[in-house]
Amino acid sequence: MIFAVPLSDDNPTVNPPILTYFLIGACVGSFLWQLGHNERFILYAYGMIPAELFGLWHPPRNYQVLAPWVTVLTSMFLHGGWFHLLGNMLYLWIFGNNVEDVLGRGRYLLLYLTCGIVAALSQAFSNPTSHIPMVGASGAIAGVLGAYLLLHPGANVRCFVWIVIFFRIVNVPAWAMLGLWFTMQLVSGLMAAPGRPGVAFWAHVGGFVTGRTSYRGSVPQAGRRPRSPWE
Questions:
Q1: Which helix (H) or strand (E) holds 143?
Q2: If we measure between CA atoms, which residue out of 44, 115, 104 comes closest to residue 76?
Q3: How far apart are the C-alpha atoms of 183 and 220, rounded to whole Å?
Q4: In what order do the strands lie in the sheet with 156-163?
Q5: pLDDT tens for residues 56-79?
Q6: Can you say how many angstroms the Cα of residue 135 is from the centroid of all Cα atoms in its chain?
Q7: Arithmetic mean of pLDDT, 30-37
Q8: How far apart are CA 231 and CA 229, in angstroms?
Q9: Cβ distance 139 to 76 under 8 Å?
Q10: What does the longest C-alpha to C-alpha distance in the chain come to?
Q11: Is the sign of the CA dihedral 141, 206, 173, 104 positive or negative?
């Protein structure tokens, strides 16, 4: 068994990542709000359900709180459990600050929301008749990972690696870690049985590809830290 999780990177930032903090706070706050409500109601009222989004099915009337297209946005701030939340927030904490630093808060927010929307639609189109709600910031964060790979492919990421009974902390190039992560999502999506609950792999793929390509023509040379106005 091999288990790996990123801990930090070696990229300093010029400006404080205020928007990244806000997004983390919004997701954590939304999850705490979820805990005080019926889980099934939250999932079916605020999660993105492909069949409902395409008008092929509707949940019971008491779950129809929002227009289906709005759930594409609300689903981004909900999570299926503590591990789901903490894993997503760890990735956003490590990689989001550098992307925000380069793009600026306005373009970073646009990137985040665009990738989250494309991710939700990618998952929906992969199985348009599904009645299973999709929740999580994973697709939007996958877009942040794609943008990070474009900006800082040579950065080092400190990872905790556990192999059976042995573990250690190693430095891994961002291109290797994120490239492997994307490959795993793509392969898992191709192998996953349609219509079964589980990880929304196609949301990860759609978000990552969107983040990797959206700002190709409007970012500094990959791997270079943006200069401060005072430098």
A1: helix 138-151
A2: 115
A3: 26
A4: 2-9, 156-163, 166-173
A5: 999 999 999 999 999 999 999 999
A6: 11
A7: 95
A8: 6
A9: yes
A10: 59
A11: negative
Cβ distance 140 to 116 under 8 Å? yes
The pTM of this model reads: 0.88
Read off the tokens for 180. Answer: 């492997």
- Answer yes or no: are the C-beta atoms of 11 and 95 closer than 8 Å: no
> Is residue 226 pLDDT above 70, yes or no?
no
Helix H or strand E segment including 6 = strand 2-9
185 backbone dihedrals φ, ψ, rounded to 5°: -65, -45
Residues 6+ apart with CB under 8 A from 224: none
Q: How far apart are CA 31 and CA 203, in angstroms?
A: 20
Domains of the chain (ranges plus CATH)?
2-214 (1.20.1540.10)
pLDDT tens-place string over residues 15-27:
999 999 999 999 9
214: Cβ–Cβ under 8 A, 6 or more apart, which residues?
111, 114, 115, 143, 147
Tokens of 105: 């808060």
Q: Which two tokens stand for residue 27?
A: 């997701």
